[in-house]
Amino acid sequence: MQTSTANYKVIKKVKDDRFDEELLHQYNLLIQTGPKDLQIAVVDSQENRLLVLEDYAMSNVQSHGELLAALKELFDAHALLKAGFWREVKIGIKNNKFCQVPEELFIEKNAAKYLKLNATLEEGKEKVLWCKNTSIHSVTVFSVQQDFHDWIDSIYQNTTHQFFHQSACLIEGIAHASKPDTNPLYVYVDRFKLHILSTDKGKLVYYNQFPIKQFADYVKYIMLVLKSLNMDQQTSEIVLWGYIGKNSPHYLEFIKYIRNVSFGERPRHLKFSYLFDEVQEHQFIDLYSLQLLAN
């Protein structure tokens, strides 16, 4: 499905027949936004069942101001996004202004200081936030544009809502998906970005994200990380999630260089009806994993 307005395009839209507008008070609304896209999910908190999934692209926006205008247009046109009766709203932020801090070393008043070691902040235009990864006892410190934060606050001022970072979502999702007796390299292919993670016996060993300008960048960065972790290119297992099709030209080219590749599965913490069979199982793990996070 692809329908569009001047500022956004619907890429995917799926709704379970069980969805009931009268039960919003028991549903969680999950929203994830990046520089050029937005994903939405609705989860029944009583059954942990996915009821709604939507994916939007904002390919025409060239600045944060244009993105915010497109988001406001989408929210105004949407039947559910501005509803005020959700059980909880969780907002995931996709950007490169973040850092990981061990939970035992984290001091809340120093959050901005931690982040400034890893990113340049625009004073007065960005707000510093943090969220926990309970599975690995870590805290993700990140920034969000102040005007976007204030706008979201105004929409959900009477609803419990929290902000999280995409890296925290991926780390938590991979932690739940990983198996203690294996040590693969986990790769999440996002739009214009690559995320690479590694765990060992439930502990995070490596996480980073890389900007992608051409296909060769995927292979280059994966090779660099394999080498830095002393993992063998031919025998190490690579597990793929994200925006890469199982029969796509990119995947077929990808396996020419890296042999032992498999696709990730749907998360075990959610239930899916047959209506979501049209969505490939290895997609949207970051969005789904918002359900796992809480501060």
Structure characterization notes:
The structure is a single chain. The chain is an alpha/beta fold and 295 residues long. The protein has two domains: 3-98 and 121-173 and 286-292, Nucleotidyltransferase, domain 5; 177-263, Nucleotidyltransferase, domain 5 (2-Layer Sandwich). 24% of the residues lie in helices and 33% in strands. It contains seven helices and 15 strands. The chain has helices at residues 64-77, 111-116, 146-155, 166-177, 215-228, 249-257, 285-289, and strands at 3-4, 9-15, 27-33, 37-44, 49-57, 88-93, 98-102, 126-133, 138-145, 161-165, 185-190, 193-200, 203-211, 238-242, 261-263. The strands form three sheets. Strands 1-2-5-4-3-6-10 form a seven-stranded mixed β-sheet. It has a five-stranded mixed β-sheet with strand order 13-12-11-14-15, with helices on both faces. It has a three-stranded antiparallel β-sheet with strand order 7-9-8. A hairpin with a 4-residue loop joins strand 1 and strand 2. It starts with a strand and ends in a 6-residue tail after the last helix.
Please state the CA-atom Rg, rounded to the nearest Å. 19 Å
**Oligomer category:** single chain
Beta-strand residue percentage? 25-35%
- Helical amount: 10-25%
Helix segment tally:
7
Average pLDDT metric: 92
The SSE string, one letter per element, is: EEEEEHEEHEEHEHEEEHEHEH
Count of beta strands: 15
Task: Give the class from helix and strand content and strand pairing.
Answer: alpha/beta
Spatial ordering of strands, largest sheet: 1-2-5-4-3-6-10
Biggest sheet architecture: 7 strands, mixed
Instruction: Calculate the terminal CA-CA distance, rounded to whole Å.
Output: 35 Å
